[in-house]
């Protein structure tokens, strides 16, 4: 089964399954994240609007940075590049949800079982001491849901009198802060942060906030920082400190806390790395006030009067370069970010900062482990202090980076291929592949030439040596987003836009020309935009046509290369979607399975069985009539669904296999040992399978047909099988294998952006709830799942485990349970039906540090 991951713009809680809605428990994590805020502007710099950035919203789960397919049709705006970074897996909401996302969230929430005492009305109906008591008696998950309130709820919950009551309570209690949340101080801080966020986006409804609120919040902050426990190096303190530091930014009083920020930066050492929450708190200073506060004249004046925090930033960036190349490198990169950002504040601040920026750039190599620090610092120096680019040596930063990282070039007709490490022979292979793909594409879509009046008839293909270099350099050179496995950036309506497909080499051989992942998929996007799709990307996706946009790229990639799409074949056997459902695919309503393998299947079916419909549709698209093109296939209704369903059976049985070999295998895992059984086939060929080559993802390999391999450590590995037939034709198929070392199951953290989502062979660590509360989860099971095992382990306290096939699980609503004393629980469900299934941990007593795992 071919690995694919989530779309770059995919909503975190994407729906999976036809006409299936995912319920949301009342205490669920916040919905899909929004891109980080634009870099702040400051009136101290001519030409920059003095627009204050919105306060940060709730922290949410961020999209995984794993390999993904990706596409865009226009460069990203500068305000989405070069931003301060968050730890992997987190994001902060900086803008309200879109109406569609908010409506979807409302619809989902409406299906959830109500949780007593966590509706907006429960907060809005209370005031004064009653409100304070209620906030502190609520869970932090519950208080975090208030970041989403709007309308009359926003006014009732967050009018100034409510905020003052909570701020005064924060002030009264902060002096007794003990280094953890045992007194529920965190709930007060979260409420205040939510209030600033909601009021900034609903000011007309909530009403103004005046100096009395600022004074009360400042009083609480002063009391908090006057104590000693806020410096405790522990995760318990880090959880609270992170939110308090962000609150200084939300209240726009950053200039009052320069000494605090300086103490945080100077206090950090590598001993903090054992405490992820404390590391995150350090990053809060870098990510929030020191990155965003430059718009605030009071802040700029304060650092002008006392620039010691700038020195602390520069020292941090220089001192902690050892973090580069580690999971915590965002700390050092953000210090460089903020230093360069500060150089744009003008006046004495700029004069003080510029030599420090130059010193950092001059002492930081462009390539190697220091690359991320150099790139982000240089980019932001250009962005905010562009008049000094000659001093910094960054006037042509994209050119400088290209020369350093992509030195090898081949002009292949209208294509320029720039690469990091492809040999001349590999460059020739890529060129030949692209030339042949031109002919294949034109025969497929039967176009009449380029769409008149559009630009971009030549393209650059940039190929990085690996994913790390792609993440480090590509965005600063080509303005692409990087949470993907490649991206085509173009806008055919802009005469100055130069199309580029950015990609990188796979970490293992997977059958692509010169091992350049997604080469033919991304190049199809370019051809499709030149010959089939009039207008820019926003125009193209004004109707549900993602089944075509992504499906044709997948179909061409596999069919042109003569390779079987094994994931699509496996999906065909499930009959998961009707053709009429796939026709409605958008980037918002489709997960990767529905987008890629099902897009492939839909395009293949229509090309092979109804080419007249494809030509009619493309005839509209080529004139920019997207509504007309949509009407062509939308008008079919369900008329093709039955035939498509029959076709899927034949497809999965082998009719859609490529001629020659197809690599297929089964796996069986027992502890740390995986048994692999070859199921490869030879199709429409007189040749026979001749050899097998396995790589196990841990550096080892085997030439056996059915190997057994034991891993040294638990984890998830990519196993790849390459089969070669007697005619010399090879093909590869990868899949993931998750193994344990025996005893308590140790599985990788689930990568779904929603933190309440479980998945296949993964876990959610560090779960905690107070007595009487539920920790809700869900898992989506594919068709054919024979056994679901759910287990919990680790931590302290007593947590009961519940399962329900139909709704959120609880002690009063479950079909299976494990209620042993302590936190070690396990239950197994046999032959579960496909779809969403529900799991919860119930706190018989307070529990913390618990890991919940699912295996199927």
What does this structure look like?
- The chain has five domains: 7-30 and 53-58 and 93-251, no CATH class; 261-395; 409-651, Glutaredoxin; 660-739, Immunoglobulins (Immunoglobulin-like, Sandwich), CATH 2.60.40; 762-855, Sandwich (Jelly Rolls), CATH 2.60.120.380.
- Helices cover 40% and strands 16% of the residues.
- It is built from 32 helices and 24 strands.
- A five-stranded mixed β-sheet has the order 3-4-5-7-6. It has a four-stranded antiparallel β-sheet with strand order 13-12-15-16, with no helix packed on it.
- A hairpin with a 2-residue loop joins strand 3 (408-412) and strand 4 (415-419).
- The longest helix has 22 residues, at 424-445.
At CATH level 2, the architecture of the largest domain is: 3-Layer(aba) Sandwich
Residue ranges: pLDDT <50 for 5 or more in a row? Answer: 1-50, 98-116
* Radius of gyration from the alpha-carbon trace, in angstroms: 28 Å
The CATH superfamily label of the largest domain reads Collagenase ColT, N-terminal domain
Distance between the termini: 16 Å
Instruction: Profile the largest sheet.
Output: 5 strands, mixed
Whole-number count of domains = 5
The computed structural class is alpha+beta
Percent of residues in beta strands?
15-25%
Q: Remind me, CATH topology of the largest domain? A: Glutaredoxin
**Broad shape:** globular
């Amino acid at each position: 089964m071919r690995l694919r991951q989530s779309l770059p713009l995919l909503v975190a809680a994407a729906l999976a399954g036809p006409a299936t809605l995912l319920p949301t428990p009342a205490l669920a994590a916040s919905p899909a994240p929004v891109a980080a805020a634009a870099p702040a502007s400051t009136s101290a710099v001519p030409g920059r609007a003095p627009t204050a950035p919105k306060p940060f919203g709730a922290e949410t789960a961020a999209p995984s940075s794993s390999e993904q397919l990706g596409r865009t049709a226009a460069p990203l705006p500068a305000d989405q590049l070069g931003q301060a970074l968050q730890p992997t897996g987190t994001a902060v909401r900086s803008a309200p949800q879109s109406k569609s996302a908010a409506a979807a969230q409302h619809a989902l929430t409406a299906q959830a079982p109500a949780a007593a005492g966590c509706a907006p009305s429960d907060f809005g109906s209370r005031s004064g001491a009653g409100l304070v008591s209620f906030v502190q008696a609520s869970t932090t998950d519950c208080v975090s849901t208030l970041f989403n309130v709007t309308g009359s709820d926003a006014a009732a919950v967050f009018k100034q009198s409510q905020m003052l009551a909570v701020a005064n309570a924060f002030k009264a209690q902060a002096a007794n802060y003990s280094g953890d949340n045992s007194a529920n101080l965190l709930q007060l801080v979260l409420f205040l942060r939510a209030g600033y966020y909601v009021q900034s986006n609903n000011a007309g409804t909530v009403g103004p906030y005046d100096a009395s609120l600022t004074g009360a919040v400042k009083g609480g902050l002063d009391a908090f920082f006057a104590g000693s426990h806020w410096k405790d190096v522990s995760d318990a303190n880090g959880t609270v400190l992170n939110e308090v530091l962000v609150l200084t930014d939300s209240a726009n009083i950053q200039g009052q806390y320069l000494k605090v920020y300086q103490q945080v930066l100077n206090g950090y050492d590598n001993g903090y790395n054992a405490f992820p929450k404390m590391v995150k708190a350090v990053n809060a200073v870098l990510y929030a006030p020191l990155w965003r506060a430059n718009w605030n004249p009071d802040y700029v004046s304060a650092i002008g009067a006392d620039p010691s925090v700038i020195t602390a930033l520069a020292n941090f960036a220089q001192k902690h370069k050892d973090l580069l190349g580690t999971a915590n490198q965002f700390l050092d990169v953000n210090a460089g970010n903020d230093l360069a950002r500060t150089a744009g504040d003008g006046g004495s601040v700029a004069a003080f900062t510029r030599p420090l920026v130059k010193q950092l750039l001059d002492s930081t190599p462009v390539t190697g482990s220091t690359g991320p620090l150099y790139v982000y610092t240089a980019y932001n120096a250009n962005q905010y202090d562009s008049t000094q680019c000659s001093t910094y040596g960054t006037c042509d930063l994209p050119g400088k980076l290209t020369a350093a990282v992509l030195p090898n070039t081949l002009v292949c007709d209208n294509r320029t291929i720039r690469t990091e490490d492809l040999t001349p022979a590999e460059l020739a292979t890529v060129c030949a592949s692209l030339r042949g793909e031109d002919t294949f594409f034109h025969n497929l879509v039967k176009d009449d030439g380029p769409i008149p009046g559009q630009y971009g008839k030549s393209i650059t293909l940039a190929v990085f040596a690996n994913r790390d270099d792609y993440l480090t350099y590509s965005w600063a050179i080509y303005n692409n987003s990087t949470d993907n496995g490649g991206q085509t950036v173009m806008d055919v309506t802009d005469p100055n836009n130069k199309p580029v497909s950015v990609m990188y080499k796979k970490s293992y051989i997977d059958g692509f020309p010169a091992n350049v992942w997604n080469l033919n998929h991304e190049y199809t996007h370019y051809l499709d935009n030149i010959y089939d799709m009039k207008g820019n990307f926003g125009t193209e996706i004004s109707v549900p046509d993602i089944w075509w946009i992504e499906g044709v790229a997948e179909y061409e990639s596999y069919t042109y290369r003569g390779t079987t799409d094994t994931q699509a074949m496996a999906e065909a056997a499930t009959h998961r979607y009707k053709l009429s459902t796939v026709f409605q695919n958008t980037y918002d309503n489709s997960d990767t399975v529905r987008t890629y393998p099902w897009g492939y299947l839909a395009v293949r079916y229509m090309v092979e069985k109804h080419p007249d419909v494809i030509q009619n549709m493309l005839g509209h698209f080529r004139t920019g009539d997207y509504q007309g093109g949509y009407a062509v296939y939308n008008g079919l209704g369900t008329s093709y669904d039955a035939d498509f369903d029959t076709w899927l059976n034949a497809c999965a049985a082998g009719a859609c296999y490529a001629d020659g070999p197809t690599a297929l295998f089964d796996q069986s895992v027992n502890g740390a040992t995986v048994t692999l059984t070859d199921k490869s086939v030879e199709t429409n060929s007189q040749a026979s399978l001749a050899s097998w080559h396995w790589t196990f993802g841990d550096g080892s390999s085997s030439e056996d047909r059915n190997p057994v391999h034991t891993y040294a450590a638990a984890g998830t590995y990519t196993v790849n099988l390459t089969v070669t037939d007697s005619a010399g034709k090879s093909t590869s198929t990868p899949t993931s294998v998750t193994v344990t070392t025996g005893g308590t199951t140790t599985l990788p953290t689930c990568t779904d952006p929603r933190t309440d989502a479980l998945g296949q062979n993964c876990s959610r660590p560090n779960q905690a709830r107070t007595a009487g509360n539920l920790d809700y989860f869900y898992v989506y099971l594919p068709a054919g799942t024979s056994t679901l095992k759910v287990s919990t382990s680790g931590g302290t306290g007593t947590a009961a485990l519940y399962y329900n096939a139909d709704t959120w699980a609880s002690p009063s609503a479950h079909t299976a349970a494990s209620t042993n004393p302590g936190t070690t629980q396990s239950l197994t469900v046999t032959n579960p039906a496909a779809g969403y299934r529900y799991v919860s941990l119930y706190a018989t007593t307070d529990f913390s540090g618990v890991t919940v795992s699912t295996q199927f």
